[in-house]
Amino acid sequence: MAKLNFGVIGCGIQGTVLARALTGVEAGTIVTRYSALENAKITAVADINKEAARKFMKEFGVSTYFIRYEDLLDVKDIDAVMIALPHSDLARAAIEALGAGKHVLLEKPMAISRTEARQIVNVAKNSKQKLMVGYSLRYSPSRLAMKNLLSRGAVGEADVVIAGKGGGPLWGWLLDPGKGGGIMRYLGVHVIDQILWMLGGEVIEAYGQVNFDPTHKCDETNIFTLRFKSGLLASVCVAMPVNVPFDFVEVAGSEGTVRADWIWCGDATMTVQSKNIHEYESSAKIVFQDDPLTPMYRNEVADFVDCIVHDKPSPVTAEEGLKVLEIVDAVFESNRTGKPVQFPLT
Description:
9 helices; Dihydrodipicolinate Reductase, domain 2; alpha/beta; 9-stranded mixed sheet; Rossmann fold; 2 domains; 6-stranded parallel sheet
């Protein structure tokens, strides 16, 4: 088939990362070891920041530029778009892109609330186009290995999850609550998605406490628990700023324990001990060496292209993104009232 023509909406850090994964261009701190995806090419970009767009176009050899992304969506021969905008702009851009007949790779968290996310779900259901939410950590080799072990019964019946994600100070619009800023929507959604993706099940209650940055009023520390219908309990910490970033998910059960630590600038690790899997009867630590970013983003983008080319279901659906934002909203509501929030939400 002919190559898919991609438009990139948002030429900042994340838009550039996704474009490098698609094109195989080597630049910055991400050392790309892949050729361009043979079924796709970038033909146009949109960004209100002309300087960012100019830099992007030079790096990727793109000649067509729009200030307004709506003008990019009007181009008939653009088949798909990758949307990497401030959180407050994601939902509207995704809905308009689907309406324009474009396939959509939509950066997480996909929207700033469950209300917006439900709007995307409704539009996506009635569209022939593919929409994938960009939860890239699903493609981390250490997390894929952990999910595989859990599916093999490594921990038996899961009883408890302990997870956390933290990084340094946020910047720019990420500090602006009006734009969907704050650490929960920036990093916390990743760890929530990881728990739901790895373990499945239905969340029936959330209880949370939140500290807000006194200057910018965005959330900076979130501690919350999730109760699942199965009885499984998850305890999660999402924080900024922290001196040493952390990103881990640990699952313990009747027959073992599995933990994966992901570090964006170093080796990822997984620790496992399992009565059910012979090679892990004694505790073992597995190190995933090399660049943790390149294969993750490359596989994410390749999966999106593959679902379009071969008409497969979306690898990460709008419904899955909605479940994450329902939990985010519940945590903030619980902090406001001081009480647990019950699911399903109204």
